[in-house]
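Help needed: design a sequence for this.
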C-alpha cells in the first residue's frame, strides 16, 4: 500500500484506498493514536452474531450464576425495545449486504436469565428467523414442554442448547422442584422425537455443561447421554466463580487435562451423524483470542444496552485464580436511542475491537506483581475496561 503523508496544512494525505481494494467509497475510517504510530480502522456494519438477553429473570437459582452476585437491576425486555433491536439488526444486515456482503448470520437468545420465561419469546424467535438468519435459544430446559418445542419448531429455531449439569440439578432441589432433572430429560427426549417424526435435521440440540472439581467424574457420561437425547454437540465450560467458596471448584489451576470425550452417533433426519464435545482449555496460556470480537458478535441487554461480550454485560464480582475482580458493565450505546450500526461503528467501539484483536492488554494472571489495577478490571496499560485476565479469551470459559 502506498504511504500516507502529512501535508503542509497538517492534514493526512491518503492514497485512493478504494482503488487498491481496501475500501469502498463513503466508508468511514477511525483513526487511532498508538504508542508507536497511527492506526486506521475501517468501520463497517459487519455484525455477524447478535446475542439478545430478553430477560434476566429466571425460574431457577443456580449457585454458580452471576445473577446471585451482580449489582444490576433485573428486568425483562419490552416489545418496543425488541422491535428497536430487530429494526437495527435488519438495517445492519442490509447495509452489510450492499457494501461488503456477508452480514448478520445468527441471533442467539441467551445471556443470563431464562429466555423461555419471556412471555413473547415465540414471537421474538419467529421475528428473528424471518430475518433469514440462524436462531439459537439457550435454556435450562424446564419450560421446554412438548407444546413449547412444537411452537419453537414452527417459529423456525435452528439450535436449542440446554444446560444440564450438577449446578442446575442442585438448583432444582434447592427450589423444591422435585423431578426437575427428569422433566428436562423427558423434554429433550420429546424434542428429539418430534424432530425425528417430522424427518427434520433441525433444530440441532446441544447440551451445555459447566465442569467443576465436584462433577468432573460426570464428564465421561456426556457422550452417552447426548446420544440418548439426540444432541449433536456438547459444550463444556469451566466455572467462572463469583463467590470465594466456588473459587475452590475451578479445574484450570491444575496440570491434568480433561478426559477426551469420544464422538457419538446421532440420528439427524434420514442421516446418522457424529456428535462432538467441545472441551475448554484448562491452562492459562500465552495465546489470547476473543471469540466475541473475532466472530463479530454483539450483545444486546434486556434494557436495549449494547455490550461487546458476556464478560462485560453485567456488573459483578468474580475470582480469577483466587483474586477478586469487580467487573463493571461496559455499555457502548442503546438500541432504544440510536441505530445499532451507529453504536457498532462508533469510534470507541471500533477502537475497542481493534485493541482486542491485537490484544493490547497486560497479562495480569502471569505478571507476578500484586498491583491493584486488576481489582476493578483495569490494567497498567491504561485500559478501562481491560481484557487482561479474561478467561473467555483463553477459551477457559465458553458461552453457549
Ligand atoms: C446463564 S445461562 C442462561 C440460559 C439458561 N438460563 C441456562 O441456564 O441455560 C447460560 C449458560 O451460562 C452457564 N453459566 C452460568 N453461570 C456460569 C458460571 N459461573 N461459569 C460458567 N458458566 C456459567 C450456564 O450453565 C448456561 O449454560
Ligand atoms: S438457569 Fe441459567 S440463568 Fe437461571 S440461575 Fe441457572 S444458570 Fe442462571
Ligand atoms: S476478551 Fe473478554 S472481556 Fe474482552 S471483549 Fe473479549 S470476552 Fe469481553
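Sure. Designed sequence:
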Amino acid at each position: 500500500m502506498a504511504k500516507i503523508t502529512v501535508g503542509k496544512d497538517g492534514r493526512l494525505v491518503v492514497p485512493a484506498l478504494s482503488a487498491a481494494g481496501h475500501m469502498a467509497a463513503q466508508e468511514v475510517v477511525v483513526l487511532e493514536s498508538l504508542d508507536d504510530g497511527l492506526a486506521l480502522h475501517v468501520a463497517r456494519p459487519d455484525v455477524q452474531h447478535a446475542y439478545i438477553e430478553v430477560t434476566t429473570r429466571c425460574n431457577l437459582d443456580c449457585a454458580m450464576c452471576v445473577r446471585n452476585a451482580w449489582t444490576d437491576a433485573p428486568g425483562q425486555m419490552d416489545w418496543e425495545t425488541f422491535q428497536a433491536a430487530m429494526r437495527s439488526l435488519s438495517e445492519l444486515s442490509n447495509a452489510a449486504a450492499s457494501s461488503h456482503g456477508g452480514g448478520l448470520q445468527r441471533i442467539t437468545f441467551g445471556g443470563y436469565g431464562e429466555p423461555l420465561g419471556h412471555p413473547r419469546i415465540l414471537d421474538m424467535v419467529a421475528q428473528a428467523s424471518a430475518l433469514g438468519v440462524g436462531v439459537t435459544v439457550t435454556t435450562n430446559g424446564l419450560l421446554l414442554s412438548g407444546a413449547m418445542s412444537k411452537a419453537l419448531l414452527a417459529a423456525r429455531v435452528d439450535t436449542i442448547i440446554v444446560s444440564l449439569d450438577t449446578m442446575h440439578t442442585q438448583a432444582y432441589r434447592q427450589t423444591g422442584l422435585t423431578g426437575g432433572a427428569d422433566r428436562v430429560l423427558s423434554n429433550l427426549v420429546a424434542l428429539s422425537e418430534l424432530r425425528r417424526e417430522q424427518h427434520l435435521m433441525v433444530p440441532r440440540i446441544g447440551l451445555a455443561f459447566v465442569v467443576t472439581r465436584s462433577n468432573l467424574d460426570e464428564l465421561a457420561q456426556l457422550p452417552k447421554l447426548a446420544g440418548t437425547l439426540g444432541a449433536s454437540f456438547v459444550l463444556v465450560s469451566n466455572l467462572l466463580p463469583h463467590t470465594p467458596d466456588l473459587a475452590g471448584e475451578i479445574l484450570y489451576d491444575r496440570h491434568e487435562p480433561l478426559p477426551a470425550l469420544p464422538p457419538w452417533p446421532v440420528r439427524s433426519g434420514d442421516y446418522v451423524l457424529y456428535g462432538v464435545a467441545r472441551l475448554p482449555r484448562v491452562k492459562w496460556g500465552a495465546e489470547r483470542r476473543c471469540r466475541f470480537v473475532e466472530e463479530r458478535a454483539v450483545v444486546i441487554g434486556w434494557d436495549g444496552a449494547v455490550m461487546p461480550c458476556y464478560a462485560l454485560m453485567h456488573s459483578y464480582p468474580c475470582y480469577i485464580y483466587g483474586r477478586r475482580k469487580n467487573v463493571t458493565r461496559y455499555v457502548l450505546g442503546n438500541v432504544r436511542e440510536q441505530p445499532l450500526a451507529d453504536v457498532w461503528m462508533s469510534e470507541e467501539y471500533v477502537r475497542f475491537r481493534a485493541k482486542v484483536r491485537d490484544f493490547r492488554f497486560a497479562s495480569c494472571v502471569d505478571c507476578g506483581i500484586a498491583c491493584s489495577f486488576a481489582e476493578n478490571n483495569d490494567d497498567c496499560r491504561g485500559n478501562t475496561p481491560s481484557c487482561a485476565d479474561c478467561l473467555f479469551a483463553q477459551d477457559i470459559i465458553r458461552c453457549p
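The two ends are 40 Å apart (CA to CA).
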